[in-house]
Amino acid sequence: MQRHLNEVHNKNPGFTELIASKCKDIYENNSYDLLLNLLEKKQNLNVLDIACGSGYLLNLCYKRFGKKLKLTGIDMSSSELELARKKLHYTNYKLHLGMAQDLSFLEDSSFDAILCHWALTLMDPIVPVLKNINRLLKNNGFFAAIIDGDMDTVPEYRKIHNIIYKYVQKEHPNYGTIELGDVRVRNSKDLKKLALKTFSYSKVTITPHVLYFSDYPKPLAREVAKFFYASFILSKKVHSKMLKELEKYFSSSLNKGLGSYMMPINLLYIKKN
Questions:
Q1: Per-residue pLDDT tens over the stretch 137-178
Q2: Which terminus of the chain is less hemmed in, N or C, by CB atoms within 10 Å?
Q3: How confident is the model at residue 2 (pLDDT cuts 50, 70, 90)?
Q4: In sequence order, which residues have a C-beta less than 8 Å from that of residue 250 and are 6 or more positions away?
């Protein structure tokens, strides 16, 4: 499955931020804002973005805080990092090609904040990742991650998930039996236990959020499908059928001609003592 993730990102660098930046909560915060809002406006903060992709979050950090931050990004996709280097028009950053399970080239206690936008859910094994984060964080530093929420809290999301996976499992019957990442990360209770086991005596909170996005049914179907890695393995013909069914679903409940998408997410926050 790791190869599947790498192929998707190498062929479609930068795809995740396109819709992630559009989905917002009732306070007009998108998932990137939820992470940015945790950073303090202090001088010389060292910030690491794990699975930085095309550098979208790093760029937002620089735009909001400027030279107050020293930024480092790591990603497993060379195509994503190539795009990041084109996007980042400042010099106070470092990018590394690698996996979150192996960060031995980074020094202990070297970061004030470590961020991860929608990638922790996909990482397996997860324990070495958490141990690395614990090692790299300074005392009183924090780790924050956007992860998948419980789809049962938003029935509309479950319906969209089921439409997409119906087509995936018809064409690739074994795909649905393989989970991307460690399943414990998708369960709040299990994730908290896992985090507390690694970050002893630290503050661990998991806060649920629901994000919203509206658009005309056809472009909405196209953008929403990109949020599901499984959709990328479909043949063109089957992918087209899936998009038509999604479009029909979004067309069934319009508000001023627009369909709506709701997505549950969790914000994991660990304050290291």
A1: 999 999 999 999 998 899 999 999 999 999 999 998 887 555
A2: C
A3: low
A4: 217, 220, 221, 259, 260, 261
Q: Identify the residue whose tokens are 């090609």.
A: 97
Task: Determine the structural domain holding residue 196 and report its residue range.
Answer: 2-150+184-212+261-271
Q: Which tens digits make up the pLDDT trace of 236-266?
A: 999 999 999 999 999 999 999 999 999 999 9
Taking the C-alpha atoms of residue 36 and residue 62, their distance in angstroms, rounded to an integer, is: 10
Cα–Cα distance between 170 and 163 in angstroms, integer? 11
Distance CA 57, CA 77 (A): 16
Handedness of CA 94, 97, 102, 104 (dihedral sign): negative
Give dist(CA 230, CA 246) in Å, integer. 15
26 within some domain: yes
Q: Is residue 138 part of a domain?
A: yes
Q: How many domains does the chain have?
A: 1
Amino acid symbol at 6: N
Q: What CATH number is attached to the domain comprising 108? A: 3.40.50.150
Q: How many residues does the chain have?
A: 273
Residue 30 DSSP label = B
Hunting for tokens 């084109």 — which residue is that? 86
Query: What does the DSSP 8-state code read for residue 234?
Result: S
